[in-house]
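> call design_seq(struct)
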């Protein structure tokens, strides 16, 4: 069974989003070492239920994207299309993390997929 492992937000003004979520929810933000403006979000104690996420600079068309962890990204993309979903972005490396793709379910909800692979480049 695959679980939601991450959420992803976009903001035209990341500092404004960081200040808001830190003040309201107590989340902490750490600038990532990725080649784009991206902050890792810690939403609470690792021992408590919940997930962490990330914030990137961009238009919040679909403001929050939940990412589902899968063992085989290509197989998951095949199943998505077989069952009426649409691939929005193909397999893309997240250097040092793994492989990412995005899809839309048949009702228009958007999700990310991630396959763990620290050797991804």
């Amino acid at each position: 069974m695959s679980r939601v492992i991450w959420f992803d937000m976009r903001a035209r003004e990341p500092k404004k989003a960081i200040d808001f979520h830190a003040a309201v929810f107590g989340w902490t933000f750490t600038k990532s070492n990725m080649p784009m403006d991206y902050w890792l979000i810690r939403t609470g104690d690792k021992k408590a239920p919940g997930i962490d996420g990330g914030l990137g600079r961009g238009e919040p068309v679909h403001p929050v994207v939940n990412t589902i962890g899968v063992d085989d990204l290509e197989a998951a993309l095949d199943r998505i299309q077989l069952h009426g979903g649409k691939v929005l972005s193909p397999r893309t490396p997240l250097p040092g993390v793994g492989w990412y793709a995005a899809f839309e379910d048949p009702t228009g909800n958007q999700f990310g997929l991630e396959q763990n692979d620290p050797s991804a480049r």
